[in-house]
Amino acid sequence: MTATAERPTPTAPRPKATVRLGDRVFSLATVLSGSLILLVLVLVALFLIVQSIPALFAKPGEIPNQATNFWTYVGPLVFGTVWAAILALIIATPLSLGIALFISHYAPRRIAAVLGYIIDLLAAVPSVVFGLWGVLVLAPFIQPFYNTLVDHVGWIPLFAGPVSGTGKTILTAAIVLAVMCLPIMTAVMREIFLQAPVLHEEAALALGATRWEMIRMAVLPFARSGIVSAVMLGLGRALGETLAIAIVLSPATVVNVFLLTSQNPNTIAANIALQFNEAQGVGLNTLIASGLILFVITLLVNMAARFVVNRRKAFSGAN
Amino acid sequence: MSVAVRSSRATTSNTLTAGKLPKGAPWGLLIVSWAIFVGIFLLLKASGTTADFNIVGALFFGTILFDVLIVVISMVVEGGRKAKDRLVTSLVTTAFIVTLLPLVSLIYTVISRGVARFDANYFSESMRNVIGAGGGALHAIVGTLEITAFAALISIPIGLLTSIYLVEYGRGRLARAITFFVDVMTGIPSIVAGLFAFALFSLFLGPAFRAGVVGSIALSVLMIPVVVRSSEEILKIVPNELREASFALGVPKWLTILKIVLPTSIAGLTTGVMLAISRVIGETAPLLLTTGFTTSMNYDLFNDRMMTLPVFVYTQYANQGPDATPFVERAWTGALVLILIVMALNLLARLIGKIFSPKLSRR
């Protein structure tokens, strides 16, 4: 680099490398802004921790919901967050696998790109619109099905009654969540499926395999780690989703696994959105501390997902 | 004579197509099973069992009927392996169609319910002193545009410089760390970004401080990683020959980047930036925490509460008055405007990318 070249010695006169001010300034600016990103991430953690400390050491009675300490307050919320995200993934994983396979291996070449774009459109819909749709369209539409489920298979604990009359249950919220984290999962899986070695696929077909046998033998083994990380990226999205849950769910401070009742465990993010503007004092610190917990959970999930993905190839949901 | 010809043709075609369904069979079957359920649902409506004709339900159950039919028929005609293949094909297609249903339903609902208030008042009035019907979202639209513009003003330089660092300068541990954590940052929940901006400002200005600029900071935390990732991809595909030619002419590195690399990739960079804007413009949760909400106009980004379109949609739904209809109507129209803005940004971005990108091949 010209900027760091040493001065020419008198014995070996070489043309002096010019140290240009422009180069210095420019490279310094890029390094600084790069480091700024790392700094922001550290600051996010730091500010959240600072603001959480009063809640972590709060005395009984200061925390909302008659919780004795912070952990009993945040426990049900953590459960609700993870439970809703898992339900959403149970719905979204097979669907996004199907869509990704459809676009990469089944749809006619000419329209595959268009179909991919249509799925990307789903990602462009703001979450508040999904929430509105979920509560005003999906919930009334699906409520009769819930009635039927409770009437006929209510003996399964998951579907135990009493059924919610509004359809604003955790299952509805999970369906909305599933639709919302489909695009990122589909995008990652599609990318990985398209990278599967074409020669292997053709060899399988040449040996007389049907299309499904070809996919099972040549594509899926190749894409396994990609599928895992796609699911984890989807999990990250589902864990952090706020407004759709805040609008669709009718929450309560409970821990249960009933899908169809009106007593649903709330999620951390939705709880913050619903309580934030009325909260003050330690209540505010409690909400920020629960946000810190959410931050840590999603950070771990995302780092794990990125770790798996980066071993394979540089691919991110952002492009 | 004719009998003999037909039988010989039958035997020749038998060797290749025996035990196979004709080519168009799946599509025909799909349309038939859709038609069956459209018929059933029309009958239900005619008999008065259901209030509305339910096109979504008809397509959904029609597709499931198709899945069952195709597997059974294929099992009988083509045998087990082929039937399994058909099963997977139909399942995969079903997954795609099932996913399209919410999208179609959502777009249909937003448009059909949103047009009710899609009028001149909506774009020329705020909600000040409006109790029931009437009013508009001008204050929210202005707020959204201002806050997003300021967020873009923060994010674009930082994001671009970082991607330049990663592509042109970055080697070693720092570059690897930045790449990894930018990826991780794309997954930060939006509400955590909001909490961060809130915590940052409340340290200095107290917890009651609400202003548009806090929202901009929160949005830029979400936007920077997206800008970095997309610009990095674009800068990487600028051919190295261009840089080398420029160095060979004695042009310093920073001028090479400014005059050669960036102009070559400007179309792609613009696309990436606009996609990033379209991603954050619909964010609700961070703005709900940081900018608060108001019914009045506020042009000042650094002072006082500011309404934004996503928050407007949310508050109209969440805080309905005694007569809910005008509130819900305003919410739907807000959703429609929001989707229109996002779609317009998306389309424009892709168009710019298509039209202005340099032609790499000589044709």
From TrEMBL, chain A:
Name this polypeptide is given: Phosphate transport system permease protein
Domain ABC transmembrane type-1: 78-305
Database matches in InterPro entries: MetI-like, MetI-like_sf, Phosphate_PstC, Phosphate_Transport_Permease
CDD domains, per the entry: TM_PBP2
Keywords, in A-Z order: Cell membrane, Membrane, Phosphate transport, Transmembrane, Transmembrane helix, Transport
Similarity annotation: Belongs to the binding-protein-dependent transport system permease family. CysTW subfamily.
Membrane topology: Multi-pass membrane protein
Gene name of the record: pstC
Subcellular location: Cell membrane
Matching NCBIfam families: phosphate_pstC (TIGR02138)
Alphabetical list of Gene3D superfamilies matching this protein: MetI-like
Organism annotation: Frondihabitans sucicola
Stated role: Part of the binding-protein-dependent transport system for phosphate; probably responsible for the translocation of the substrate across the membrane.
PROSITE patterns: ABC_TM1 (PS50928)
Stretches that traverse the bilayer: 25-50, 70-103, 115-139, 242-262, 282-305
UniProtKB/TrEMBL annotation, chain B:
InterPro entries in UniProt: MetI-like, MetI-like_sf, Phosphate_PstA, Phosphate_transprt_permease
Keywords: Cell membrane, Membrane, Phosphate transport, Transmembrane, Transmembrane helix, Transport
Signal peptide: none
Domain of life (superkingdom): Bacteria
SUPFAM superfamilies listed in its UniProt record: MetI-like
ABC transmembrane type-1 domain: residues covered: 141-349
Membrane topology label: Multi-pass membrane protein
Transmembrane segments: 27-47, 53-76, 88-111, 147-167, 179-202, 208-228, 260-281, 331-353
Principal location listed in the UniProt entry: membrane
Protein localization: Cell membrane
PANTHER family: PHOSPHATE TRANSPORT SYSTEM PERMEASE PROTEIN PSTA
UniProt record similarity statement: Belongs to the binding-protein-dependent transport system permease family. CysTW subfamily.
NCBIfam families: 3a0107s02c
Known role: Part of the binding-protein-dependent transport system for phosphate; probably responsible for the translocation of the substrate across the membrane.
Protein name, UniProt field: Phosphate transport system permease protein PstA
